Amino acid sequence: MVELLPLSDIEPQAVEHLLDAAFGTDRFGRTAYRIRAGVDAVPALSFAAVEDGALIGTIQCWPVAHRAADGKATPLVMVGPVAVYPGQQRGGHGRTLMAHMLEAAETKADSALMMIGDPEYYGRFFGFDADATGVWDLPGPFERRRLLARVVNGHALPTGAGMIGPR
Questions:
Q1: Is the pTM of this model over 0.85?
Q2: Is residue 101 a contact partner of residue 57, using CB atoms and an 8 Å limit?
Q3: Quick one: pLDDT at residue 105?
Q4: What does the alpha-carbon distance between residue 18 and residue 29 come to, in Å, rounded to a whole number?
Q5: Domain annotation for the chain: domains and CATH numbers
Q6: Gap between the Cα atoms of 81 and 78, Å rounded
Q7: Is the per-residue pLDDT at 22 higher than 90?
Q8: Torsion-angle region of residue 80: left (phi > 0), alpha (psi -120 to 50) or beta?
Q9: pLDDT tens digits for 30-60?
Q10: pLDDT at residue 72, as a whole number
Q11: Rounded Cα gap, residues 155 and 132, in angstroms
Q12: What is the pLDDT of residues 118-128, one digit of tens each?
């Protein structure tokens, strides 16, 4: 049976090992890492999936902000990575982690959500879309169609141009 726990209950080295297995040791060069540089994950929205005492998956969320040209900063929560050990993938664990995080976000998120992800998957199953993100920018390369956002807990999305970075 899979148990969902706060990510803070898991040894950080175990999380890093999982992320290396899921995304490779070169993952630190990705744009997503630049966006959340220097900030800690949001404890209330970051979870681990554990089965028989072993870590099999995680979801992390990060405090980021949309900064408009006029200097106005709008807080956002960046979702991801969602990671599952390769041998455990296709078992629904990522979807379970995502659904659990979204349920928590409906009452605990301090801002709307954004992510870099597959719009066909995250749109279909979790309500993320690129409607508000067309003029947002990121500090590195990205596919515009994969920059997604979702309103939660009554928090609106920024609508104008701006750069996404750490809060």
A1: yes
A2: no
A3: 98
A4: 17
A5: 2-166 (3.40.630.30)
A6: 9
A7: yes
A8: left
A9: 999 999 999 999 999 999 999 999 999 999 9
A10: 95
A11: 13
A12: 999 999 999 99
If you write DSSP's letter for every residue of 24-51 in order, what string do you get?
A: -TTGGGSHHHHHTTT----GGG-EEEEE
Question: Both tokens of residue 73?
Answer: 């900063």
Give the C-alpha distances (Å, rounded to integers) separating 63 from 87, 100, 109, 113, 159. Answer: 30, 18, 10, 10, 18
Confirm if 100 and 47 have CB atoms less than 8 A apart.
yes
Relative orientation angle of helices 119-126 and 93-108, to the nearest 10 degrees: 60
**Dist CA 50 CA 56 (whole Å):** 6
Mean pLDDT of the chain: 96
Residue-level pLDDT at 88: 83
Q: What is the DSSP letter of 156?
A: P
Q: Both tokens of residue 94?
A: 């990522």
Q: Can you read off the two tokens belonging to residue 77? A: 């929560």
User: 87 pLDDT band (50/70/90 cuts)?
Assistant: confident
Scored b (16 or more CB within 10 A) or e, 33-44 reads eebbeeeebbeb
Q: How is residue 4 written in tokens?
A: 């969902």
